[in-house]
Amino acid sequence: MKFTLKKIIHFPVIKIVLAITICLGILIGIQNLITKPIIYYFINSKPIGDTIINYISVIVLLLSYFYFFKIYDKRKIKELTKINLTTELLGGFLFGFLVLSLVILILYLLGYYTVNSISDFSYLLAPFSFLIIAALIEEVIFRLIIYRIVEKWLGTYLALLIISIIFTVPHLLNDNVTLLSVLLLLTFGFAHSIMYTYTKSLWLPFAFHLGWNFAQPFYGSNLSGTEEGHIINANFDGPILLIGSDFGIEDSILSIILLLIVCILFLKLSIRNNKIEKKKLQLSSAVKLNI
């Protein structure tokens, strides 16, 4: 048996592992060896320093991805296109934020959500920049690298199943995970992936992810099982099925239902606009054997 190096490194699984390792390696290396030492040397305020570091990290990660695949695949990186960039970023953020805002409105009308006070908006500094880089890292890894490559290899439907599971597994390590949290995570992974299928770019799933995540601490909820600070200090008092568990408002059955509607909407749009990738798993697409 004889494998050529080119066939091996372009095998989808190898490509995924290399892309994640190199992109994250560059990000972590530059953070720890360059940006953190320099920023903390000149800036005494940790919140301001962290904010600058996080925004620099956004640029580093995007450039790492761009040049890795530009060199590796020798192609244009259309998934980072500037076309519809502003529309998808602003629209996606508002879309994600408004979905959970609708849940909050329903809970308020039912008497299950009350506002106690409003904090200052310092949350919009370092914590918000952390939400940005955290959402970007997840979307680059799970959507641009894993899902995009698997979708072209195995087709959209199988890729959606695989990425929903892969996205869920690491989040099971979060605090306060429940069965509804698992259902939410599976649905979340599906929703963002089908958004990518429809737009073929990073911006909509990333912005929706950011808007969704920002809405939770904004309204006083935990975020994926953790306390991330709040802008609105509020009480959630009602059935856990409706208000969500300690994982956060996102595992409310209301949030899950709305997210399922989003999934169906983008799945229909993808089918209608011929965005669904067909299965391409053949011997010729895998590593061939030269015997």
TrEMBL record:
GO terms for biological process: CAAX-box protein maturation; proteolysis. InterPro entries: Rce1/LyrA-like_dom (IPR003675). Pfam families: Rce1-like. The keyword Nucleotidyltransferase does not apply. One of its GO terms (molecular function) is endopeptidase activity. It comes from the Bacteria. Residues 124-214 form the CAAX prenyl protease 2/Lysostaphin resistance protein A-like domain. The chain crosses the membrane at residues 12-32, 52-69, 89-115, 121-142, 154-173, 179-195, 202-219, 252-271. PANTHER family: MEMBRANE-ASSOCIATED PROTEASE-RELATED, PROTEASE. This is CPBP family intramembrane metalloprotease. The lineage of its organism: Bacteria, Pseudomonadati, Bacteroidota, Flavobacteriia, Flavobacteriales.
